[in-house]
Design brief:
The protein is mostly beta strands and 382 residues long. It is built from 3 helices and 30 strands. The protein has helices at 9-15, 174-179, 181-186, and strands at residues 43-47, 50-58, 66-74, 80-81, 93-96, 100-105, 113-120, 123-124, 130-133, 142-145, 148-152, 158-162, 169-172, 188-196, 202-208, 216-220, 223-226, 235-243, 246-253, 259-266, 275-278, 282-283, 288-294, 300-305, 310-315, 322-328, 332-340, 343-352, 355-359, 369-374. The strands form 7 sheets. Strands 5, 6, 7, 8 and 9 form a 5-stranded antiparallel sheet that branches. The longest helix has 7 residues, at 9-15. It is globular and about 50 Å long. The two termini are 30 Å apart. The model is unreliable at 1-29 (pLDDT under 50).
Length: 382
């Protein structure tokens, strides 16, 4: 790699001393009816035998004293702190392909740049850092394919950046997508997510002002394909992930009865003959999706929170929504799946101050604590 593009932890810290905007989990007046509400950055990612989860810790009511932390488990082993070094994490951490991918520390406060680093086995590679522009608030603002990173910026543009290139190039902008035939059917109001499947095909998640579409765009040569079962409300993609040769998405709907659903887009191919399968909707009245993780079956396990408690649910396309365990306390902040001996187990992360507890929600008892990790939170410094 060209040394001109290698940033040390010291230079990252200097440029991103304020880098990091904790999202609000306010329950004020039906937040799920507002499609402009940015999706939660609390997210779980599973890539082969590597599981990683991002949660906020510290004083969660104060963005300057809320610091996002990431934890990684290799092949079902003990969870360890894997938060990138060198900059404040108040603005959130976005992870793409933790086994061999990228991690970005988002901008915060007056900062207009983010820190991008390679990721190997869930650990930051410190000598491969880059400074990039401000990213959209989305757990799917970053995707990785080979040595190329795809980024969704705050202006709604999709950029791609090779780790060996000097600058990023623009793949498409929100305006260009909105002016395409597929974009006009959707009424594109924002690009919210990006994913790249194993064959290198790109998909974008969007916020659509018009009903009747699923808000997932799949790249077909020089154009974009948009499909899915008709809906009567506008949609926004909260999260988008590659799933083999297809994609999975977590979609929020607005209207009088807001809801969240998962969808699977498969079999797209070069000529795009994709099919789309939806999960049943889960109501979001007075609730928010606090965290999500792909369930390995084309859907998502999600953590919902309202004003009194939280709950975990599996949303699989074409299947019933299945509750995971009993109701949970509001201290539940993250959800992730760990792979042990070929089998998968859903775990919830409870956060109290500087302690993260990894627990399995049970049907007979509320918690079974697997591990507790204490983190030194740098209060008073972003």
């Amino acid at each position: 790699m060209n040394k001109a593009f290698v940033l040390s932890a010291i230079s990252l810290a200097a440029m991103l001393g304020l880098s990091a905007c904790a999202q609000s989990n306010s329950m004020n007046t039906m937040p799920s009816m507002d499609l402009n509400l940015g999706p939660s950055l609390n997210a779980g990612v599973v890539d082969g035998g590597v599981s990683e989860v991002v949660v906020p810790m510290g004083h969660l009511s104060d963005p300057r004293n809320t610091f996002y932390q990431s934890f990684t488990s290799l092949h079902g082993g003990a969870w360890r702190l894997s938060t990138p070094h060198g900059s404040g994490t108040n603005g959130g951490i976005v992870v793409a392909s933790p086994s061999d991918g990228a991690v970005v520390i988002r901008q915060f406060d007056q900062s207009h740049v983010a820190a991008l680093s390679p990721l190997l086995h869930g650990q930051q590679v410190p000598l491969g850092g880059r400074i990039v522009g401000s990213l959209a608030q989305s757990p799917s603002a970053v995707a990785m394919h080979g040595s190329t990173v795809y980024l969704v910026d705050v202006q709604g543009s999709l950029e791609k950046l090779s780790m060996n290139a000097q600058t990023a190039t623009v793949v498409t902008t929100q305006r260009q997508l909105a002016s395409s035939p597929a974009g006009k059917r959707c009424g594109v109001a924002a690009i919210t997510a990006v994913a790249v499947n194993r064959s290198g095909q790109i998909a974008l998640g969007a916020r659509c002002d018009k009903g009747g579409t699923n808000a997932v765009f799949v790249k077909n040569r020089s154009s974009w394909w948009l499909g899915g079962a008709p809906t009567t409300t506008a949609n926004t993609v909260m999260r988008l992930d590659a799933a083999g040769d297809g994609f999975s998405a977590l979609v929020r709907t607005a209207g009088a009865a807001p809801s969240v659903r998962s969808i699977a887009v498969s079999g797209s191919g070069a000529e795009v003959s994709a099919t789309t399968v939806w999960s049943p909707p889960v109501g979001l009245m007075y609730s928010v999706v606090r965290s999500s993780v792909p369930d390995g079956h084309g859907g998502y396990d999600i953590l919902l929170a309202n004003s009194t408690d939280a709950s975990a649910t599996d949303l699989a396309p074409g299947s019933l929504a299945v509750p995971i365990g009993k109701r949970l306390p509001l201290s539940a902040q993250g959800i992730v799946i760990a792979t042990v001996g070929g089998s998968q187990a859903t775990e919830v992360v409870e956060v109290i101050g500087g302690t993260a507890s990894f627990v399995v929600p049970g049907r007979q008892s509320m918690w079974r604590v697997i591990q507790r990790v204490k983190v030194a939170i740098p209060y008073g410094a972003a």
